[in-house]
Amino acid sequence: MNIQEFLSIFISSVFIYNVILSRFLGLCPFVAISKDTKQAFAMSAAVTFVITAASIVTWLIYRFLLLPFNLAYLRTLSFVLVIAALVQLIEMVIRKTSPVLYRAFGIYLTLITTNCAVLGAAVLNIDMFFVNGKAVPGSFYYSVFQGFCMGLGYTLAMLIMSGIRERLELCNVPSALKNFPLAFIIASILSLSFMGFSGFKF
Amino acid sequence: MEILFAVIILGSLGLIFGIGLAVASKKFNVQVDPKLEQVQHLLPGANCGACGNPGCFGFAESLLEGKSTVESCRVCSEEIKEKIAGIMGISLEKQTKKIATLHCNGGLRVKDRYIYNGINDCISAKLVLGGQKACVFACLGFGTCQKACPFGAITMSVEGLPVVDKVKCRSCNKCVLACPKKLFSLISVSNTVYVACSSYDTGRDVKMVCPVGCISCKLCEKACKFDAIHVIDNLAVIDYHKCTSCKECVKVCPAKTIRIRE
Fold first, then answer.
1. Average pLDDT over chain B, rounded to whole?
2. Lower Cβ count inside 10 Å, N or C end of chain A?
């Protein structure tokens, strides 16, 4: 466990393997909730929070429950279960303790239950930080940090997209391309430009 | 044997989460007023914000807190308002319906000063020397009000003027705020007469640019038996407290500026 490793996780999960633009995970909110920067930011904040929390819980479940019983093949199934329960629990706690935060997250927190970016992050953590059924040194911290950084990458992509789409609202666009078609074109160009980062090797 | 492990582990995982969530939902239970849900269910859900609250949910909340009244929702029909009042246990005061009315009848009859080639929107057009129309007060006709109307009550006619659908209009005030020329106002249904001009120019200047504008001839002022219409700053203005919709002014108006709402 060293600083260098953390830096490389940060750069690779925010830029090189950006969760939306390179790994193509969590695309539905990327298209649906990117019309307004404020909403996009609320959604990304919720996603970052949930991915980080899910990284912690799924790592623990995998290490202490699935591996000892040789049940690694059940990880996807159990992760779905864990994430869904976790999000519900978080929602309840937030609703009780901080109504302001609950209002700010709104429906987004519940939506994340079925967001594939969260499951993708959990599965990727396991793929990267477990070798031959054994956790690499510092695996837990790497997992949590990578989860958090993927959330940051998600936020970055959402903010870029919503910023562009807000500007486009004021432009004279052919009516056939209005809204979603244009959003898809922008997404593809953005994705191409993020592919440029893949030249970096970490 | 292995399949048994899988079943037991996953089953117990599910069971633990289920019980955990059940306990949590009891522990973190938030009491919600059942009235809130009932009221919210009855509200139109257009989230127009005409009541001054952030959406229908915000309105329902402020209703229960007693900060606003049922009447401030301009979208609900009378029937639904009574139902909501019934849930709240209060009586309802009657209010007459108002309809958005455009105070301009120029449209394509008003010539353009220059060719506008910018964004197809009144607000943008107004930024360029106050709009392309020869009359600075005239409707620009790009339909910003049409886009602003959440109920689809405004359509642009072939004459380049917005037409308000009397039935669909819910007097939400959106068009009044959206129009950069401030040409809309809400007038109650019982008053059928209105002045279709907003120009403060003198009669001569109006005549040069628009055949249907108010030329401040004061014939309407003389014709009115109820002292309800006056020419103020070169524009006829109706006092709706006094107006009886007798339509005398409509008959005498030489430019047909004072009109009857269809």
1. 86
2. N
Contact A65 B28 (CB under 8 A): no
Give the predicted TM-score (pTM) of the model: 0.58
Q: Tell whether A191 is within 8 A of chain B (Cβ).
A: no
Q: Does A173 touch chain B (CB under 8 A)?
A: no
> Would A20 be classed as within a structural domain?
yes
Cα–Cα distance, B97 to B77 (Å, whole number): 10
Q: Which helix (H) or strand (E) holds B123?
A: helix B122-127
Q: Is residue A7 part of a domain?
A: no
What are the structural domains of chain B?
34-88 (1.10.15.40), 98-260 (3.30.70.20)
DSSP state of B133: B
Query: Nearest CA to A49 among A121, A103, A99, A1?
Result: A121
Residue-wise pLDDT tens digits, B123-145: 999 998 888 999 999 999 999 99
Q: How many CB pairs under 8 A join A and B?
A: 47
B25 to chain A, closest Cα gap in Å:
7
- Judge: A170–B119 Cβ closer than 8 Å, yes or no: yes
